[in-house]
Amino acid sequence: MAAHRQLQRAALLDAARSLLTEGGGEALTFPALAARTGLARSSVYEYFRSRAAVIEALCEEDLPLWAAEIEAGMAACDTAEARVEAYVRGQLALAADPRHRAVVAISELELDDASRERIRAAHTGVVRLVLQALEELGHAQPKLAAALLQGVVEAAVRQQERMAAGACPATAGSECAESEVADAAVSLALRGLTAG
After folding, report:
1. 41 within 8 A of 32, measured Cβ to Cβ
2. Alpha-carbon distances of 88 from 51, 81, 171, 185, rounded to whole Å
3. Which long-range contacts (CB under 8 A, 24 or more apart) does 19-22 make?
4. What are the pLDDT digits (tens) for 109-125?
5. Cβ–Cβ < 8 Å for 89, 186
6. Does pTM top 0.85 for this prediction?
7. What value does the mean pLDDT take over residues 190-195?
8. Residue 49 C-beta-side C-alpha neighbours within 13 Å
9. What angle do CA 143, 145, 149 make, to 5 degrees?
């Protein structure tokens, strides 16, 4: 019986990932989860009490995988600057990958404060990856710098999403490209606003 419940829960989470990938946060509803899995809507509530609970479960499973991919990319770098760049570019690449759309969609959803706090705690593991590199670069407040750097990454992810939706504004006569967003985010992270 326990194995059956685990399989059903996994099927619900897979369905949630698909819904988030295909339609963003608005697509994640209990009727849609029930339809995708063939369960009765009331059965979905036996596994998750709310949309927030589904999102929390996705975070528990997906954020460690996300962090492991970022960490592997950073580990291949020889310098602190290269590790910061790998941190930024790695997250942007993962955010653009449809398999990771669920993690990106989390920021779009309206969740209660307790859920947001649990997700923020899980997300802290990703941010921690860049702390040592920032310390090596001489940041006086590496925790603050890491939090701000993550803000840059999240803004770059949103810009990539606007571009993918065809809503990218023309910038200084040049075409918008994902590589430009990544380059700008890396430049901002490593050199600040005065970088050329």
Report:
1. no
2. 29, 11, 22, 7
3. 20/58, 20/101, 20/102, 20/105, 21/98, 21/99, 21/101, 21/102, 21/105
4. 666 777 677 667 767 77
5. yes
6. no
7. 72
8. 1
9. 120
